[in-house]
Amino acid sequence: MALTFDDLFGSPDHFLQAFEQDHAVFVPMDRTAYHRSIFLDHRISPAAAQRMALPLADLMPRARGAAPTAWIFHMAHCGSTLLARALDDPAASLVLREPLALRQSAIQRDPARLALVLAMLGKRYRGDAPTLVKANVPVNFLLPQIAAAQRDAPAILLYLPLRAYLLAILRDDNHRGWLRHVTTQLAPYLGDWSALSDAERGAALWLAQVEAFTTALSAMPNARTLDAETLFDAPLPTLRAAAAQFGVPIAPQTLETVVAGPLFSTYSKNPSVAFDNAARRTRAAEVAAAIAPELDLAEAYVARHAATAAPDAALLAAALSR
User: Fold this and answer.
1) Measured in whole angstroms, how far is the alpha carbon of residue 92 from the centre of its chain?
2) I need a surface site. Which of 90, 181, 182, 267 has the fewest CB within 10 A?
3) pTM higher than 0.90 for the full model?
């Protein structure tokens, strides 16, 4: 049977994976493929080795209003992959982790492409359970547009306090490289930060995202915040609250099994690496000792540039209830 536009817009089996010039690239997916794909960028593990490129000029006029989705917005390196994977029960909601086309829409700042992506992300396997989308850092700067399109969508804004965030993103050369790369990509939103040190860039990125999240709380009444330390320290009650916030129909015993299983004893981005909360705390203490002068520099930067003495106060006030 020939594939139709109704099929493309109606079934998650046809996933809009990326934009290439003036084409949209689709890959075949199914429940199993989504579950095993820790990320939906170049690391995607599709259901079959096929791809289909369709002209955007044919797709965009057919884009329809997006079905309601649920969202995880986050600062990066703060447990978002852990949260999204913990809520990924193939019998319940479809979970999409870092769709590349969504990130491209943020980098390219194209409203028409964003509308198409939102329509595609809203597809679901169960009519009674929203698709849960874990975005990534560039998408935080699309929050006004997403809020305008999906004002009532349930969302969690996952973050870390300043010091814990700096310990996560300044801990090694690889993470510092990510920081420089992403802030350079986001220069159209943030400005030119090339003269800033790594510590100042980290502080500035934290502050920009806190401000984006604070604004989003006013625009999205069903958004709540979550300090990632709460997830790390008390995973089971936090996951129960997150599932309720999203309307994800996961059985309580399923969450108990997840917390007791390998997900919380290995690195969420690479299950072959052993890692747990105790290891995270040990690493953070070691990093704190190694970069103490940079932490002081970053905290001074925030003190100079934040509009208030407690820039994350609104995030604390909107915390997810457990």
Assistant:
1) 19
2) 181
3) yes
Residue 47: C-alpha distances to residues 8, 13, 15, 43, 170 (Å): 16, 9, 10, 13, 36
Distance CA 46, CA 299 (A): 43
Q: β-strands 95-97, 132-134: how paired?
A: parallel
Q: How far apart are CA 78 and CA 12, in angstroms?
A: 28
In the DSSP assignment, the letter for residue 319 is: B
Q: What average pLDDT does the segment 41-68 reach?
A: 91
95-97 and 14-20 beta bridge pairing = unpaired
Six token digits for residue 227: 């300090």
Rg from Cα positions in the chain: 19
Q: At what angle do helices 198-219 and 162-169 cross, to 10 degrees?
A: 130
The residues, ordered by sequence, that sit 6+ positions from 277 with a Cβ below 8 Å of its Cβ are 232, 233, 264
Identify the pLDDT of residue 1.
57
Using alpha carbons, select from 305, 127, 159 the residue that is nearest to residue 229: 159
* Per-residue tokens: 230: 């709460």
Report H helices in 19-110.
31-36, 56-59, 80-86, 100-108
Which DSSP string corresponds to 175-235? HHHHHHHHHHHTHHHH---TTS-HHHHHHHHHHHHHHHHHHHHHH-TTEEEEEHHHHHHSH
Closest CA to 246 of 104, 18, 29, 73: 73
Q: Residue 305: CB partners within 8 Å, gap ≥ 6?
A: 204, 207
**Cβ–Cβ < 8 Å for 126, 44:** no
**Rounded-to-10 torsion of CA 248, 251, 257, 260:** 60
25 pLDDT higher than 70: yes
